[in-house]
Fold:
Amino acid sequence: MSLQHRKLFSRRASAAAEKDRLLAIVERMADGIIIVGMDGSIRFANPAAEELFGRRLNDLAGASLGFPAVAGELAELEVVRPGGASVTAELRVVETDWGEERVRLVSLRDITDRKRAAERAEQLQRERIARAEAEASSQAKSEFLATMSHELRTPLNAVIGYAELLDLGIAGSLTDDQRKQVARIRNSARHLLGLVNEVLDLAKVEAGRLTVQSHTVNAADTLDAATSLVQPQADSKGITLSSHCDSLSIVYQGDRERVRQILVNLMNNAVKFTESGGRIDLRCAVASRPSNEARLVGTGPWVCFTVRDTGVGIPQDRLSSIFDPFVQVEGGHTRPKDGTGLGLTISRRLARLMSGDLTVKSESGKGSTFSLWLPEATEVQREAERWRAGAPDTAARLVGLADVGRGIVRELPALVESFVNRLREEGIVPGAESLRSSQLADHIGAFAADIGNMLVLIEEARGETSRLVVESAEIQLYIAERHGWQRARLGWTVPALHREWSVLREELERVMRRGANNVPERAVSEALLVVDRMLEQAEDRSMRALERGLLNGESGPPRR
Structure:
């Protein structure tokens, strides 16, 4: 063999060995690899490419790539598999030698999941912006209603006041006809004031600014107070109104004034929609299990107030909407009963603010039964209320708060860890599980520590005004505001932030009860009342910051 032939053979052997080595590497690669001749036809495809295309090498070999493969470029290719399914692949091209042939090596990486994740992220961003705009619009509407309601109440109170002065004869004696006209002015103004107050309450509820107290209250006393307010209206219309409590010792946990407001509203509606000669029965009882319609959290037992009437009833197709704002069973300008249609809306929201609910059962022409569900007070809550009522002074009620506060500080690391874990487990917002612990905690440790220290300061101040207590409260509000801005930057929503504060409240209560060794239960209950007020104010400040942050594109508060 001549030297020239030996060199040619050597080159061919070397090229074949290089091809085999390249083939061995390509076949093991996770990315799809295809070898394309300079004419655009496929020479080879590795197993990953076969899986990507959904075709075997025998089907791919000799076929055209169908895409201009330019070396050095990065592109995306939509691959349609047999059956119509498609995947998105990222395509890279380099030129190389394949044996003795110059070819293009095309690398294909399946980026379908990444592409869909990016599209989902964009969709979530659009939804977040739309939700923020809707919440901002709702907030603006609520603030407008609240402002206008205040503006309307001032002149209405003046109208009522001057009408009463005229009725008293301050400006001179009135004839019988004049007195009747003044009475109509007064009654109309009072009616209008009631409507304005309902709008104001709804605005407060929607803005998250309507608060309720939590005390142990005797159910029979509340029922009697509400009945006495409605009895004259029922008597004037010839309606029999009766009330009964299964036991005079039934005690619920809630806000006495708000519960009375709900019951009066329910009874007023019953009087309004019950004809003369009808009947309205009120009852309070304890139930271990609520009705299926009630949305209640906890295991009970529950105190249930029922208002049953023999009125016109509610059609089945309207039952689901009567708790919506501005909805009345009979609408239009010719409806026989006046009102805003806000009473039931506000009543249900007040009930749920007190960890209860308001439900209805009715049938057209056969009357209605409204049920107000509230948690029954526990024996510990009753004892704490009795002690609070009998305490000689404020200082005596505060004894033990310092020990509870020190317990919070001792348990601080465990509290923060449990708080962060719960945010991850509940998936407060998409991607919460992937956030760093420091991002999820966001100075909650400092906030909780200040709560603990503030309980110590409150007991030491013995109920007197203290500059240290005031400054501690200011620190809490400052942290809460910054927390709201930070949550806005992370894409938190209003419901998510509300749930987060609820989690913090639950974790604080757990730590307070566990860490308060040798502290009377009444002191823990008193501390819980104080902490609830702190959290209420902090959540309100935090929520306002979140809404401003979402509205302003999460730019954050101005630097001080």
Summary: The longest strand covers residues 86-98. Residues 329-340, 555-560 have pLDDT under 50 and may be disordered. Residues 389 and 397 are 9 Å apart (CA to CA).
